[in-house]
Amino acid sequence: MAEPIISASELERFCYCPLSWWLGLQTEAQSQQLEQGVARHEDVSRELRNILDGEKRALAWERAVLWFSLIATVMALIGLFIFNRNFSRDIIWLSALPTVLWIGLILYLVMHASLDKKNGVRRAERVFAIASVVTVFLILIVLITYDVPMVLAEVALVLSLFWLIGTSFALYNTLKSQREIEIRRKEIHLTAKIAYIGNDTSRLLRSERYGITGRPDYILEEGDELVPVELKSGRQPRGPLFSHIVQLAAYCLIMSDSGEKVTRGILKYGDTEFDIDFDEGLRQIVTDKAGEMRSALKGDIEVHRNHNRPGKCQSCSRREQCPEKIV
Questions:
Q1: Nearest CA to 316 among 26, 305, 272?
Q2: pTM higher than 0.85, yes or no?
Q3: Which of 151, 221, 239, 290 has the highest Cβ tally under 10 A?
Q4: How many whole angstroms separate alpha carbon 160 and alpha carbon 158?
Q5: What's the pLDDT tens digit per position in 147-184?
C-alpha cells in the first residue's frame, strides 16, 4: 500500500492541533479567519503577478529603445553615405566606423537584455539581429558601388528622425514601467526577484522521496539560492508559530530535494518578517511530523489535543464537535 501524500498546508494544521486537523478531515467547516486568509493570499498573488507583468513590459520597452536606436542609426548612416558619395571610399569608411561600432554595441545590448537563464536568447530577436546586420552591410555596399538619387538621403534622414522620436517614446514607457514596479515592490517590501507565485493554477511542488507536496505563497531568487515565502493573516504573534515554521520548512524540504539551494525561508505576518533557517534539525521535525500524520491516517495511532490554551480552543473552527475542547 502506497504511503499517503502529505501537503504542507495539512502539515501546518496537524502541528497546530492534531485533533483539529483530524476533525477537519470529517467536515467542510471553514472559519471566517481562514476565509480572510485565502482572500488575502489571492490579493497578494494578484499583486505579485502584476509586478511580474510590469517587469516584462519594462523589458519589452527597453528592447524597443535599443531596436529603435539601431534603426535610427542605420537610416542616418544611409543618408550620410549618400551625401558623402563624392568623397573617397577611405574617408567614407573612416567616417562610418564609429557608427558601425555603435550598431554593434546596440546589437550586443539587445542580446544581453533578452538573455534568459533557462531559455537563452529569444530566437526571434536573434534572427532579427542577424538580418539587421546583413541588411546594413548590403545597403552600404550598394551605396558605395552605385550612384543613388540625393532625395534618398533626405528620406533616410527624415526616417531616422521618426525612429529617434520612437526611441524617446519607448524610453519614456521604460522609465514609467520601472517606476511603477519600484513603487509596488516597496509597498509589499519586496527586494529580490520573484521566481514563483503559488496559486491554484501554478505548478504543485512535490518531493517523491518524502511524499510531501505544496505551493508556497511565492519564492524569491537571491543569487543562486531560492527562498520560499509564506504569508500569514490574522493576529500578529510575538514570534513565528511552530506550525507555521513546520509548513515553511516543508517547502524548503521539497525544494532542496529537487536539487535547489535552500538555506532559509521567510514567514510574513503583515509587515513583520521572520527569517527561518532551514537546517537538519528542522528537516527532521518535518519528516517526523509527516510520519505521525501517516500513522494517524492508517489508524496506527490516535490523535489528541496538543495544547492547554483556552484562547486557541475558542478560535478553533472545529470546537463544536471537538471531544477534548477546553471549557
A1: 305
A2: no
A3: 290
A4: 5
A5: 666 677 677 777 777 877 888 888 888 888 888 888 88
Four-CA torsion 243, 246, 247, 249, nearest 10 degrees: 160
Q: What CATH code is assigned to 6-48+192-321?
A: 3.90.320.10
The Cβ of residue 118 has, within 10 Å, a number of other Cβ atoms equal to 4
SS3 of residue 248 by DSSP: helix
**What count of Cα atoms within 13 Å lies in the side-chain half-sphere of residue 163?**
19
- State the chain's maximal CA–CA distance in angstroms: 102
Amino acid at 308: N
Residue in the structure block whose three cell numbers are 509597498: 187
Unique residue bearing C-alpha cell 508556497: 216
Distance from the Cα of residue 155 to its chain's centroid: 44
Distance CA 196, CA 202 (A): 8
**C-alpha to C-alpha distance for 25 and 7, rounded to whole angstroms:** 13
Q: What are phi and psi of 90, to 5 degrees?
A: -60, -40
Q: What is the pLDDT of residue 289?
A: 94
| H helical segments located in the chain | 8-16, 18-24, 32-83, 89-113, 123-145, 151-187, 242-257, 280-297, 310-314
